[in-house]
Specification:
The complex is a heterodimer of chains A (360) and B (485). By secondary structure, chain A is mainly alpha-helical. Chain A is built from 15 helices and two strands. Chain A has a domain at 121-319: MetI-like fold (Orthogonal Bundle). Chain A has helices spanning 2-43, 48-51, 55-85, 103-110, 125-153, 158-166, 173-183, 190-198, 214-242, 246-254, 259-270, 272-287, 291-297, 313-318, 328-355, and strands at residues 86-87, 98-99. The longest helix of chain A has 42 residues, at 2-43. With 485 residues, chain B is mainly alpha-helical. Chain B has helices at 3-37, 69-99, 107-122, 126-144, 148-167, 180-225, 229-232, 249-257, 260-290, 297-307, 312-323, 340-345, 352-363, 367-375, 380-391, 393-409, 412-419, 422-426, 431-437, 449-469, 471-484, and strands spanning 43-44, 47-48, 60-62, 65-67. In chain B, a hairpin with a 2-residue loop joins strand 1 and strand 2. Classes of the chains: A mainly alpha (360), B mainly alpha (485).
């Protein structure tokens, strides 16, 4: 028996050794080939690897990312400029009828319900988006600032509150949007129930269903977008507030500075680069609002049976991407280029302002 | 300090841990068995009549006992509650058993053992509770030197002394002896203390208000998902639900009849593959940008950074053309020739912002480490996998989590991709699409709100579970990613 085990062990060791040898041989052959190719290239002055040191190695590491990026990121950028000048581009047959320089842009800009409020809906994508941006962003940034300052000033239960405030970040936008729509239901919604506890007459007070007034629907949308976007801002503000040197606060405490003044004169100025960064990114994010509208009001962006809609710019763009109509993709490309222009301007403003010092 | 006692306590801890684990295994298997027994309406003409769901009065036979609907609901709810209570306990103890040292033990450890034992009792896990109590006595002996008997004897005087301390009247300070200056200082201290307390009070009040606003949708979601149809559409909805009224069958309907099991499977497939791809490509690219010197590195990197500014909507238009008939032909072909998964995964197997994020943490690894490794004959790739990746693993982990979350949230791209497929495309919906586009409307025009919200809860709960498991990593990662960007 002992012999048998010994033999088996020997056998496996042999197998292992031969496998190892096999791979070493392959490696040796490959290396020989590599050396030979290198010599050959050097001889004919073709060795790019020595001309551009590092490129060969870098390409090996970069190629997986670069291949995917060039197909799905760089090509779309080039192609969308091409799409914009096509006339009646048909996706299925891949044909066009001609070229136009600004035709698609003009189609978008003069389109009812992009900038100009449409006669039958009384609202337009740009106006809706601007309302969302200019109301939700300032409120959410200010609220996040206050909450993170409050969080920073307490010790017990701090991480508990932090966890709770972070919850909206880890949820599915559509799922919670549906819950919000359900909470704002006319009959049997939680909000109407709470309002009637306070004494408001809630009969027929609808928010997201037929019979809702524009501003009421807008309120729900803004409320939801603030609710959903608060988590990230609080986290970022809290991290940067905790990074402030404690000496400032100690100096202020010695002078018995009131808390309000500490907040406005120390905390806010010292994290002002962060505030500004968050402000710009959340403005950009609010310009691209889409999922929350879909979750609350469906793909059309309007509560059923009302004469307005709450389309955002992105929603306006997406309604053209089904590829069924000739030329619709060009219009979508024009719309997204306009959106890109808006975002570009905002980013440039951010870069300019943050170059001039934002903080003290 | 008696080392033997410490070792004994650790041994008991390990045994308790095994029993905890067995208990949770029992709870979960019990839940699965009972959940599998729940009765659904019969399928008529290929569709299920969900209207009769709440009027069904099935009886179940389990372990020789006959259970009606309410009893079944009660048992399932209790099993779930037990699991919810004991699972965190297990997770906390995993960490502690592995890292506890002899210096960390104090009287609080003993008292926390007692609290845990009470929690064990609440979840009917008597064995673990008994072991924990025993462990508590061992710890008390270890810390204080009491035996169990002496411990009980010492409780009474301690409690008595505690109450005495509370009820002892505070001595009224006599201000008469002090001069005017001391009195004014004393008063101003008192004033400051009151204002401090008021401020703390208002801070907490503010935070609690916000916390309630944040929590309410989650609470309402779980609550509604357990109601029956008429409960979910009442004009005056109930704000709570009793254990016997919880309709766990809602989840079963959503998972099986409304095919959310399939959609969750789709989403998990897409999330796994796209995350795996993202990690591989971004780690390699970030390494190239952080360590390898080549001409034009900064130019290439700044081009990548610049493209981050471009809104994703711009890409989607052309990508749609790319993946459809005139491009790669992954979608938009005849039925049976489409590769929806590939079309949903491949465009998202890399991300510029993650490359940026990873490069930052790679750059913090000192150059000397690289040179030392090179001297020892370490190749670049080996250095990346053996040194860089382990050091940067928190960042990589954060990226993994963020990517899984974003796949879980993906809506528009899957919608466009599966939208052109019609009936066939529906089988490839991801959960967000399914949530929005599944018809929760019955033939008679009723919207099954309870089922819709149950589906939402089903989608949200896995995310929350992942969040609570890796809370620290995720929250730190988000904070840092914001600070750096």
């Amino acid at each position: 028996m002992a012999d048998f085990i010994k033999n088996t062990k020997k056998f496996f060791a042999k197998v292992k050794q031969s496998i190892k040898n096999f791979f070493w041989n392959i490696r040796r052959i490959l290396n020989n080939g590599k050396r030979r190719i290198g010599k050959f290239l050097d001889k004919h002055n073709l060795n790019f690897a020595s001309k551009f040191p590092g490129w060969a190695k870098a390409l090996v590491y970069l190629s997986p990312a670069l291949i995917v990026l060039s197909i799905f990121t760089f090509w779309p950028i080039i192609n969308s400029f091409a799409l914009v000048v096509y006339e009646n581009y048909n996706m299925t047959s891949n044909t066009i009828t001609g070229y136009t320089l600004f035709g698609n842009f003009i189609t978008v800009i003069t389109d009812e319900s992009f900038i100009v409020p449409a006669s039958h809906t009384g609202s337009s994508a740009v106006i809706n988006t601007l309302i969302i941006v200019f109301i939700s962003v300032p409120i959410s940034v200010l609220l996040a600032l206050f909450i993170s300052a409050a969080l920073n000033s307490i010790k017990p239960l701090k991480s508990f509150f932090q966890t709770i405030f972070f919850l909206p970040y880890v949820t599915n936008t559509i799922a919670i949007g549906l819950v919000f729509a359900y909470m704002f239901k006319t009959d049997g919604g939680l909000i109407n129930q709470l309002l009637s506890f306070v004494g408001v007459d809630t009969a027929g007070l609808s928010w997201v269903e037929s019979g809702a007034v524009y501003w009421r629907s807008m309120f729900v949308l803004i409320f939801y977008s603030i609710w959903a976007s608060l988590a990230f801002k609080i986290m970022v503000f809290l991290t940067s507030i905790q990074g402030i040197d404690k000496q400032y606060y100690q100096a202020a405490a010695i002078d018995a500075t009131p808390k309000g003044r500490i907040f406005t004169k120390i905390t806010v100025p010292l994290i002002s680069p962060m505030i500004f960064y968050i402000l710009v990114t959340s403005v950009i994010g609010a310009f691209k609002i889409y999922n929350s509208i879909v979750a609350l009001f469906g793909v059309t962006g309007a509560p059923s049976g009302v004469d307005y809609n709450l389309q955002s710019i992105v929603m306006y763009i997406y309604q053209f991407i089904d590829g069924s109509n000739a030329g619709s993709l060009s219009v979508a490309a024009a719309g997204s280029l306009i959106l890109f222009a808006i975002i570009l301007v905002l980013t440039l403003v951010q870069m300019q302002v943050s170059k001039k010092r934002v903080h003290y | 300090m008696d080392k033997k006692l410490f070792k004994k306590s650790n041994k008991i801890e390990k045994i308790t841990f095994i029993f905890d684990f067995i208990a949770i295994a029992i709870y979960i298997s019990l839940f699965l068995i009972l959940f599998g027994m729940l009765e659904l309406p019969e399928i008529v003409d290929g569709s299920m009549n969900l209207d009769i769901l709440q009027f069904m009065e099935p009886t179940y036979y389990f372990l020789n006992a006959t259970l009606d609907k309410l009893e079944m609901n009660t048992i399932i709810s209790l099993v779930i509650l037990f699991t919810l209570v004991s699972l965190p306990l297990l997770l906390i103890n995993i960490k502690k058993v592995r890292t506890r040292t002899i210096y960390e033990i104090d009287s609080y450890t003993a008292s926390s053992k007692f609290v845990q034992a009470v929690i064990n009792l609440l979840s009917l896990n008597v064995v673990s509770a008994g072991l924990r109590i025993y462990n508590m006595f061992v710890l008390v002996k270890f810390v204080k030197g009491y035996s169990a008997k002496e411990f009980f004897k010492s409780i009474f005087p301690a409690v008595k002394a505690y109450f005495k301390k509370i009820f002892k009247k505070k001595k009224v300070e006599d201000l008469g002896d002090l001069d005017e200056y001391s009195v004014s200082i004393k008063q101003s201290i008192r004033r400051q203390n009151t204002s401090f307390i008021i401020r703390i009070l208002f801070t907490y009040l503010f935070l609690i208000t916000v916390a309630i606003v944040i929590i309410v949708p989650f609470y309402w979601m779980v609550l509604t998902s357990l109601k029956d149809f008429s409960g979910a559409t009442l004009a005056n909805p109930k704000l709570y639900i009793s254990i016997s009224q919880m309709n766990w069958v809602n989840y079963k309907v959503v998972l099986t009849a409304l095919e959310f099991g399939l959609y969750i499977k789709n989403t998990v497939i897409v999330a796994l593959f796209s995350t795996g791809g993202t990690i591989i490509t971004t780690v390699l690219a970030a390494y190239a940008f952080a360590r390898i010197e080549f001409k034009g590195r900064e130019v290439l990197f700044s081009i990548l950074i610049m493209t981050m500014m471009i809104p994703g909507e711009l890409y989607i238009i052309t990508n749609f053309i790319t993946v459809s008939k005139n491009g790669f032909g992954w979608v938009g072909m005849a039925t049976g020739e489409n590769n929806y998964f590939i079309a949903m995964i491949i465009p998202f197997v890399t991300s510029i912002s993650y490359i940026f994020f990873l490069r930052q943490s790679f750059k913090q690894i000192p150059e000397s480490l690289y040179k030392a490794a090179r001297v020892d004959g370490c190749s670049d790739f080996k250095f990346l996998t053996r040194v860089m990746v382990p050091i940067a693993s928190p960042t990589i982990f954060t990226i993994t989590i963020l990517n899984v979350f974003s796949s879980w949230n993906a809506y528009i791209w899957p919608r466009i991709i599966t939208g052109v497929g019609g009936q066939e495309g529906q089988k490839y919906w991801l959960i967000s699409n399914a949530l929005r586009d599944t018809a929760f409307v019955q033939d008679n025009g009723r919207v099954m709100y309870n089922l819709q919200i149950a589906a939402s809860a089903l989608v949200t709960v896995p995310l929350l579970v992942v969040f609570f498991l890796f809370r620290k990593y995720i929250m730190n990662g988000i904070g840092r990613s914001g600070t750096k960007g």
